[in-house]
Write a structure and sequence with these properties.
alpha/beta; 470 residues; 27% strand; UDP-N-acetylmuramoyl-L-alanine:D-glutamate ligase; elongated; Rossmann fold
Length: 470
């Protein structure tokens, strides 16, 4: 997963714009006027909240974000605009006669004591104005996804209309829902309720099996592609509709310390949208979102995450998939009509010839999947002194190449089982092979795919490098 690809995406965020204020201090006495603590302020912070925090998280990840919403004609509105400009977020806001929505939190010793909310319902004129802004921006060809950030403050007066228009334009629609009526989100691609919000809609969940059953029913009722339930200490649960069959995947929490869950849902949907807009598949996007959420809950208040913070967690994961793990990834690509290119090798010592070959292979399709021999497989093929580099290291170097989308390990002498599972559109090997002799030729061409060869770079090979080193 190359996080640099996050810069390729462009996402619209439409929803309730909130200004979050934090007044922090110490408490050392009780008021003589009433039995309440007296806060002595020592610090104050102002941050973007609600839909603005989603846009901020997208920008922090490197994804281009446009924010549509409503603020007032007041000082808080000016602060919102300044923060948006500072963080390079494109502004598409309506200036209402009603005040900017704000939340003021009083804290002591990192504990919230009191919250003060300022909000009024926005007018029909405000809605019509933002709707025109939406029509303008959703029509742009470079926009990949729409996030509807619903905090129940009244900005999104007709979510069904927004979903319909966005889908008609071919955009991915993600919704962070609110309330007990999810029917207004029908037709969205993905909704991301937390567990409490999920139970508010489907009723009490008595077991994991019950969660799956009720999740499947909700997907069917709302015609969703996927339902992602955030579950705090229990991580996330994904229910995904694949050709009429709903499959479940669980993602364990990445959180180490939890100081504040404020805005964690914003981070999740921002990372998810940024990943999908950047070309990641749903599974990788959720993995990234799960890591991002684990980082952000260790910070105080609404906060953001950068690719630099996420990368160390990705580096700890194994850099390859197994035959069993690659199936769901392949299904996602097929469902998205992505052209799969497959090649394979030992890649014991990666050299410039390999890189040039792989770059040419990637140029032939949308996703390049590289099969890599296990250590035992390399030894059988190359001799007992090989491989020079262990599988984990070979795969890590391969997966770091921008042209490689996935690395998959196989334990056999040939990748035939892997090819049968992947059913690639294009099977590629080096020019030293005859096309009809390539392992998988019959299987790939039999399914309507093609098999091609790419000329190798003369004078470059792992064997020659090893001979020269002796």
């Amino acid at each position: 997963m190359n996080l640099k690809n996050l810069k390729k995406g462009k996402v619209i965020v439409f929803g309730d714009v909130i200004l979050d204020k934090y007044i922090m201090g110490s408490i050392d006495r009780i008021s003589p006027e009433a039995p309440v603590p007296v806060l002595r302020p020592s610090n104050e912070e102002i941050r973007l909240g609600g839909a603005a925090n989603v846009a901020l998280n997208l920008s922090s990840l490197g994804t281009k974000a446009t924010l549509i919403g409503v603020t007032g004609k007041d000082g808080d509105s000016r602060v919102v605009n300044e923060l948006l400009k500072k963080n390079k977020i494109k502004i598409a806001l309506r200036k209402s006669l009603h005040p900017t929505i704000s939340k003021t939190r009083l804290l002591s010793a990192q504990q919230q004591i009191l919250r003060i909310d300022e909000e009024e319902n926005f007018s029909e004129e405000d809605w019509k104005f933002t709707l025109e802004l939406f029509y303008k921006h959703i029509s742009l060809n470079d926009v990949s996804a729409l996030v509807l950030s619903d905090y129940g403050k009244g900005t999104l007066k007709d979510t069904a209309l927004l979903i319909k228009k966005a889908k008609a334009k071919g955009k991915i629609v993600l919704v962070d829902p609110k309330g007990k009526d999810f029917s207004k989100y029908k037709g969205a691609d993905i909704i991301t309720p937390n567990f409490s919000e999920f139970e508010d809609v489907v009723g009490r969940v008595g077991s994991e099996a019950d969660l799956t059953k009720k999740g499947k029913a909700l997907i069917k009722a709302l015609n969703l592609n996927a339902l992602l339930i955030t579950r705090g200490p229990e991580g996330m649960t994904l229910l995904q509709n694949k050709k009429g069959k709903v499959l479940r995947s669980d993602f364990p929490t990445q959180a180490r310390d939890v100081f504040d869950v404020s805005g964690a849902g914003d981070t999740v949907i921002a990372a998810l949208a940024g990943g999908l807009a950047g070309g990641f598949d749903l599974g990788d996007s959720i993995r990234m979102a799960n890591i991002a959420a684990g980082i952000v809950v260790a910070k105080l208040g609404t906060a953001t995450v950068t690719p630099q913070e996420i990368n160390p967690f990705l580096e700890k994961e194994k850099p390859y998939l197994t035959l069993e793990e690659v199936g769901p990834y392949k299904d996602d690509l097929k469902d998205s009509n992505k052209k799969i290119v497959f090649t394979n090798g030992c890649f014991d010592i990666l050299h410039a010839g390999h890189v040039e070959y792989l770059e040419k292979a990637k140029a032939l399709g949308d996703k390049l999947i590289v099969g890599i021999n296990s250590d035992s497989s390399v030894s059988k093929l190359k001799g007992k002194n090989r491989p020079i580099n262990k599988l984990i290291h070979r795969a890590k170097v391969l997966s770091s190449l921008r042209c490689v989308d996935k690395v998959v390990m196989f334990d056999e002498n040939t990748p035939l089982k892997l090819i049968k599972t992947l059913q690639p559109d294009l099977l590629v090997k080096g020019g030293d092979y005859k096309v009809k002799d390539i392992v998988g030729y019959k299987e790939v061409t039999g399914c309507g795919g093609s098999v091609v060869t790419i000329p190798l770079v003369k004078g470059l090979s792992t064997t020659k490098i090893l001979d020269q080193a002796q």
